[in-house]
Amino acid sequence: MQSSISNFNFKRKWGFTMVEVIIVVGIFSLGLLMIAKVFPLGFEAKQKAEYYSTSTLLGQKLMEQIKKEGYWKLNSAYPSVTPKYGEGKGGFNDYPSFTWKVEWWQTKIPNLRKVKVEILHRSCPEESKASPCLELVTYIAKRD
Predict the structure, then answer these.
(1) How many Cα neighbours within 13 Å face the side chain of 106?
(2) What is the number of other CB atoms lying within 10 angstroms of the CB of residue 72?
(3) What's the rounded mean pLDDT across residues 4-23?
């Protein structure tokens, strides 16, 4: 006769207890929260990169136009405030949130003007005492 103990099967059953599941879900949730905090930083970096790229392209385009028009066009395009200084302001039709400011000065060297182009964005207001969002400087000589 067989003993009743030998019929009893001592197999271990695999599975998770409720406590283990709660701990794993908690750890997983904390990990997801940490990752979720990184996404806004990535979106902000993307937005800044787009902004700087657009500012640079607009500034270069304006500066090239000024160089193409030449020395004498500075007087009419950006009127003189004083005999040796002029300035002008405006915006871009395709990019309404960007504005520009152009200033020129007569240098100590005859027939040479310094030209500064500033590109501003509404997130970088002109009345702030901080430096402009983008600033390009060149010199233009008078050609005969």
Answers:
(1) 11
(2) 11
(3) 71
